[in-house]
Automatic annotation (TrEMBL):
Pfam family, one: Aminotran_5
Organism expressing this protein natively: Cloacibacterium normanense
Residues that span the membrane, as ranges: none
UniProt keyword Transferase present: yes
Protein known as: cysteine desulfurase
Family assignment from sequence similarity: Belongs to the class-V pyridoxal-phosphate-dependent aminotransferase family. NifS/IscS subfamily.
EC number, UniProt record: 2.8.1.7
Catalytically driven reaction(s): (sulfur carrier)-H + L-cysteine = (sulfur carrier)-SH + L-alanine
Lineage: Bacteria, Pseudomonadati, Bacteroidota, Flavobacteriia, Flavobacteriales
MF annotations from Gene Ontology: cysteine desulfurase activity; iron-sulfur cluster binding; lyase activity; metal ion binding
Cofactor list: pyridoxal 5'-phosphate
Length: 380
């Protein structure tokens, strides 16, 4: 059975070029980057060269890129260190954030006495930016605003520049979880004045176990993991040299081909919207999913017009991998936390959510196969 993979927001397959780059490092560069001998310094060069390339692409200083093991760790590092080191009294966020942000914020509320305000969201998943502005203007509490760039379940995009400007005007710090957009959208942090951002290599055909936090130097954050002086004292532990080499290669390929990949994927997404609308009467597109200017091109969230909790399994049996929410929630019986916040009770009770997510490798025939399988399962 041929496998059709349409769950690229959960993770992406490694590219051959990335595997090749990692194998070379695995074979030749086992040295510890902290060692002063040649083998160690060769490994150090790999991680510093990669850091420099990433920093150039984002228009920041290499010292502002801190390698982590994943997006979850990057978000934890930023949120927890910001609260401790910047004496944050208040976090403004929404209930639509990824679990790793939501749980970290909850933890800071419970154990560090930080006030947490959740901004209003409407039925499309739009964040109330006016409310943010008013909240910031009406209090001089030390505030960290934490709003993701693209939602991993529905794809909604935040106007990063606008929010960053509002935060700057009002003296608030701004962290954006950019795990779904890093290396997928052009990001220039010399113009978009976020203080913090996060990245995970496995979202753009790099390896699992490698990511980074962007931490603006002027914020002077300190570590959560203590030990050696690696990562400019911000993240102790011997670096994952192979993973970092893979991260670098994947980042390079994704950013060098950004226009080509994004226009191909947008075309695939438009085709999927068209075919699903034609063949499945009553299908709903969740959030801003079907609006190309307001949604990340890799993610399409739909509600199928009847309840069928087994749909993911039935598609899997036909060799098609999609998600019934997000990867973190799809294993659980609970509905997706994002959809339960934006869809009416009635819609939730009478529909079945599906997240279809694409990569530059997705082809129209795979969309046809998905649509045909859905028509068969739903007996349309
Ligand atoms: N943030 C967002 C928006 C994500 O989609 C994910 C992964 O699904 C993460 C954070 C966590 O990244 P990682 O899997 O690298 O821990």
């Amino acid at each position: 059975m041929t496998q059709i993979y349409l769950d690229n927001a959960a993770t992406t397959p490694l590219l051959d070029e990335v595997i090749d780059a990692m194998v070379v490092v695995m074979k030749n560069n086992f040295g510890n980057p902290s060692s002063t001998h040649t083998l160690g310094q060769e490994a150090k060069t790999i991680i510093e060269e990669t850091r420099r390339k990433i920093a150039n692409e984002l228009h920041v200083s290499p010292a502002e890129i801190i390698y982590t093991s994943c997006g979850t760790e990057a978000n934890n590092l930023i949120l927890k260190s910001a609260v401790e080191d910047l004496k944050i009294e208040r976090i403004i966020t929404t209930e639509l954030e990824h679990k790793c942000v939501a749980e970290s914020v909850e933890n800071l509320k419970n154990f560090k006495n930080v006030e947490v305000i959740y901004l209003n969201i409407n039925e499309k998943g739009d964040v109330d930016i006016e409310q943010l502005q008013q909240l910031l203007k009406s209090s001089d509490k030390k505030t960290l605003v934490c709003l993701m760039h693209a939602n991993n379940e529905i794809g909604n995009l935040l106007d990063l520049d606008r929010v960053a400007d509002i935060c700057k005007e009002n003296g608030a710090y701004f962290h954006s979880d950019t795990v779904q957009t890093m290396a997928h959208l052009p990001l220039d942090f010399s113009k978009t004045l976020v203080d913090f951002a996060s990245c995970s290599a496995h979202k753009f055909h790099g390896p699992k176990g490698a990511g980074f936090a962007f931490i603006r130097k002027s914020t002077h954050l300190k570590a959560q993991i203590h030990g050696g002086t690696q990562e400019r004292n911000l993240r102790a532990g011997t670096e994952n040299v192979v993973g970092i080499a893979g991260l670098g290669k994947a980042f390079e390929i994704a950013t060098d081909n950004l226009e080509k990949f994004s226009s191909h994927i947008q075309e695939i997404k438009d085709y999927a919207i068209q075919r699903l609308s034609e063949k499945i009467p009553g299908i709903l597109f969740n959030g801003r999913s079907a609006e190309s200017d307001k949604s990340l091109y890799t993610v399409l969230s739909v509600s199928l017009p009847s309840q069928n909790p087994l749909i993911g399994l039935q598609l899997d049996m036909k060799g098609i991998a999609v998600s019934q929410g997000s990867a973190c929630s799809s294993g659980a019986a609970k509905p997706s936390s994002v959809l339960s916040k934006i869809l009416s009770e009635e819609t939730q009770q009478n529909t079945t959510p599906l997240r279809i997510s694409f990569s530059h490798k997705t082809i129209k025939e795979e969309i046809d196969a998905l649509v045909n399988a859905l028509v068969e399962i739903l007996r349309l």
